[in-house]
Design brief:
- The protein has 174 residues and is mainly α.
- It has helices spanning 2-21, 29-35, 37-74, 80-105, 110-136, 160-173, and strands at 24-27, 141-144, 150-153.
- Strand 2 and strand 3 form a beta hairpin.
- Helix 3 runs antiparallel to helix 4 and helix 3 runs antiparallel to helix 5 (110-136).
- The longest helix is centred in the N-terminal third of the chain and has 38 residues, at 37-74.
Amino acid sequence: MRQKITYTLLAIASLALVFAEMKIGYIDSNRIMTEYDQVRQIQAELEKEQRKIEAEFNDLLVQLDSLKQDFERQRLLMSENRREEKKNEILRAEAEAQEFQLKKVGPEGEIYRKQAQLLNPILEDINKIISNIGAEKGYDYILDAVSGSIVYAIDSHDLTDAVLEQLKGTTEED
C-alpha cells in the first residue's frame, strides 16, 4: 500500500515537473476580431452587402405576394387554363425566391464566399503573427480561450506520425 502511494506521488511530481517546464499561452480570438480595424472594416462591408441582398430578397417577396393577391382576387373570374398559368407563375416566383436566398445567403452562398475571400488573408496574417510570437517567446502551446483550440504548438509535440506508424503496424499485423 505504501509503495503504491509512493509511486503515485512520484507520478504526480513528475507530471508537475513536466508542466512546470512547459510554456503555455492563450489568445482571445473574439477580442482580436472586434478590436482589429481591418476586421471591423470587412464586417461593415459585409453588413452593407447583406442589407443589399435583403432588400433584393424583400423585393422578390413583395412581387410574390402581389402575384398571390392578384390571383386570389381574380381567381373566380379566370378560366381554368388562366388559373393554371397563374398558379405556375406563382410557383416559379416562389422557386426563384428560394433559389435567390440559397444562392446569396445559403451555406455556400455569395455572402459566405465574399466573407472568406475578404477574411482569409487577415486570418493568415493573424496566424503568422501568433506563430512568430510563439516561436520568439518560447511557447510550447498557444490556445484560443474562446474555442479552446490550439492555435500554435511546437512541432516536437506533434504525435501524428507516431500514431500513423502504429496504425500502419496494426493493419499489417491483421
